[in-house]
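Run log // design_07
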């Protein structure tokens, strides 16, 4: 068995997936309708809407399969998310990637597989609409187009969720998406009795960049800042853009030292980016950091307010006048 490769943009991909807050949610008719149609129309034993998490494939909708998730390393769909087109395996028993796969050797004894990669945007694939059967077969050109059409319907439903929780410019969580994910993280920290940190960022001289160099350059700064956050805060449950030039990050199982280590890594990444870009301005920021114990009675909004107060104090110290 050949394990699926990890996409080069795995950090961005996982963040986008988790920001949807669709993992481990109940079945929904809008997805079940598509898998029922696909199972009947293609006359296969299994039809799934599957989402590829860090180490598992989880089924948002399933027909013909009892389990709700399976390991990613042995998944067919883990291979599908590495491409933009259909992945079709006419006979798994003679395919070097899958002939000794546990789901080929044992139940459900998959012999045929076809998967459509579900994209949030170009290059960011979070899962598949897939078909599987216990008999080898192939798809005609007409059937391939039909599977693409059904997959596009699933994409549209997922993107409708994304519109409510993802910032259109930076592609990270917007305020609503961040608050939802941060609430989940807060509850998990309380259950596990671990502390947490919340960091609020504010871009310095951002208005000046907009006024002098144009809003397109301001948009570039916001997008670049968000991408550096994604790579620097890869161990963090959630980051987001609260609006304007304000960004936020929440770290679980964190204390002052861990937060400082992450912030040092982030500062170095910002410095390196400024050197590489060689723009007539620097991307610069202020921040407020607050640590909370697991038994805090603060709400997420109150945590953000505390971080905002800490940031204001930092700015005042740097600019006492």
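design_07 sequence
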């Amino acid at each position: 068995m050949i394990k699926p490769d990890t996409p080069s943009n795995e950090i961005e991909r996982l963040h986008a997936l988790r920001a949807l807050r669709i993992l481990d949610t109940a079945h929904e008719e809008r997805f079940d309708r598509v898998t029922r149609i696909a199972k009947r129309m293609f006359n296969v034993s299994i039809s799934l809407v599957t989402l590829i998490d860090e180490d598992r494939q989880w089924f948002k909708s399933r027909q013909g399969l009892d389990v709700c998730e399976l390991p990613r390393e042995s998944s067919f769909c883990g291979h599908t998310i590495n491409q933009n087109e259909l992945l079709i395996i006419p006979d798994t028993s003679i395919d070097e990637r899958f002939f000794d796969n546990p789901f080929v050797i044992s139940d459900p004894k998959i012999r045929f597989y076809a998967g459509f990669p579900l994209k949030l945007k170009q290059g960011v694939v979070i899962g598949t609409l897939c078909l599987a059967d216990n008999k080898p077969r192939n798809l005609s050109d007409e059937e391939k187009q039909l599977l693409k059409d059904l997959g596009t319907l699933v994409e549209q439903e997922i993107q409708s969720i994304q519109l409510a929780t993802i910032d259109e410019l930076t592609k990270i969580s917007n305020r609503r998406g961040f608050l939802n994910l941060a609430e989940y993280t807060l509850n998990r920290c309380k259950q596990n009795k671990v502390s947490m940190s919340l960091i609020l960022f504010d871009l310095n001289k951002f208005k000046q960049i907009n006024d002098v160099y144009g809003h397109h350059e301001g948009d570039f700064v916001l997008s670049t800042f968000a991408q550096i956050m994604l790579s620097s805060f890869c161990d963090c449950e959630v980051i987001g853009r609260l609006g304007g030039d304000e960004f936020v990050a929440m770290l679980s199982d964190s204390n002052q030292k861990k937060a400082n280590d992450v912030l040092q890594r982030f500062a170095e990444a910002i410095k390196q980016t400024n050197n590489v870009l060689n723009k007539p301005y620097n991307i610069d920021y202020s921040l407020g950091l607050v640590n909370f114990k697991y038994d805090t009675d603060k709400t997420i909004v109150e945590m953000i307010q505390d971080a905002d107060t800490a940031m204001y104090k930092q700015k005042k110290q740097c600019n006492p006048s």
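The chain has ten helices and ten strands.
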